[in-house]
Amino acid sequence: MKAIYEKPQVFTDAITTYCGGCGHGIVGKLIAELIDELDLRENGILVWPIGCSCLSDRYYNMDAFMSLHGRAPASATGIKRADPSKFVLCYQGDGDMVSEGMAEIMHAAIRSEKFTVIFINNAIYGMTGGQMAPTTLEGQYASTAPAGRKELNSGYPVHMAEIMGMMPGVCYSERVTITSPGAVAKCKNALRKGFQNQLDGKGLSFIEILSPCPTGWKMAPLKAMEWVDEVVSKEYPLGLIKDTTKEEN
Predict the structure, then answer these.
(1) Are the beta carbons of 48 and 54 closer than 8 angstroms?
(2) Spatial CB neighbours of 100, under 8 Å, sequence gap ≥ 6
(3) Does the pTM of the predicted model rise above 0.70?
(4) In the chain, what are the domain boundaries?
(5) Which of 25, 55, 66, 97 is most exposed, with minimal Cβ within 10 Å?
(6) Cα-flanking dihedrals φ and ψ of residue 33, to 5°?
(7) Residue ranges, the chain, pLDDT below 50
(8) What is the DSSP letter of 124?
């Protein structure tokens, strides 16, 4: 019998610790597929954050580095500058990037660092108990916002893909999701674009992925997927924000 699908070769046999219905596992599989397809395992380094994905180094049979909370772009900068030939992937969540690490991602963009950034936006702190994040929607409930987020007290949700799109050092910024087979295919295409930009020596590539967090949102997995499409994507519209590489071709 001919196999039509196999586990990506870069994956180990470790069992993930993600909650049921979490989007991190889907994105992780897409990363693994692209690592295999683009032959990045031997020359790639994955930079992981503090957060739900902090144990991801055990899932991939390749070099990886766990950074301090929010500091993944700074760590990725050091790695890429020490050896520009390396493929460096920086993976962050919304709390890690937009709260603890806002300065790091901004200055990486200012300097036009030549690595790829994946930003998982599930609008909440998933690992630490469902606290409000900078990306939490207005009115959205969280353990630290039991009456819903109020703009008067907490300000407005942060739109990272648009912010990155305004930075001259960012060559590519796009927002996608993984709530359907078609959306997963578009997500993989966006990731492939961001990976290829780095291989071609372009500036920083930024891919924001809207992801469900059933545990943090206190929703059933299917309801969480629907909530991304019906509510979250209205605050954070999907689509291409910036692609200067088209102008170069």
Answers:
(1) yes
(2) 50, 69, 70, 71
(3) yes
(4) 24-248
(5) 55
(6) -60, -40
(7) none
(8) S
